[in-house]
Design brief:
2 copies of one chain form a homodimer.
Chain A: E1 10-20, H1 27-38, E2 45-58, H2 61-76, E3 82-90
Chain lengths: 92, 92
């Protein structure tokens, strides 16, 4: 007989938004701002962010948040220069 | 005497989110998904998006939306492979 001892896992949906900390130069954004100006679309300010939308399994909301936080710190973002924001919801 | 005929401009704040159309392959996202797995953080799905946060002047909300739409079509996105979403609000 197989064990019926099983950890139930929930699925969580996370949206991670990563941007440069204020004060950090963003040459890509500056270039795009200038290019838009040349095309006739001046802007007063332009910032860029990256977004990761992911689904993961975890035993609890806290575990899911911990995991996504670790993903950011270890791979997705560079904590020295980036800020990140995690929006998490249960998805089933 | 200088003319007091002046078009009043409002400032608008726009958040543009750009992602690949469904069905388009995203090798960067696939690579990051694999890298997360190797680090011990498996995900069920992972997508990437780009975000532009910009402020612009326009005479009306419609004009602002039209301008941002043109920016997307002409520079920020590639309409053949990307979807984009514009969230616009008056900022002063």
């Amino acid at each position: 007989m197989v064990s019926d001892f099983e950890v139930s896992k929930m699925q969580y949906h996370a949206e991670v938004t990563i941007g440069l900390k204020s004060g950090m130069l963003d040459p890509e954004a500056t270039t795009i701002k200038k290019a838009l100006e040349h095309l006739g679309y001046p802007t007063n300010s332009l910032q860029m962010q990256k977004r990761f939308i992911l689904d993961l399994d975890a035993a609890s909301r806290d575990e899911a948040r911990f995991k996504v936080d670790e993903m950011c710190n270890r791979l997705l973002a560079n904590p020295v220069i980036h800020n990140y924001e995690i929006v998490l919801e249960e998805s089933g």
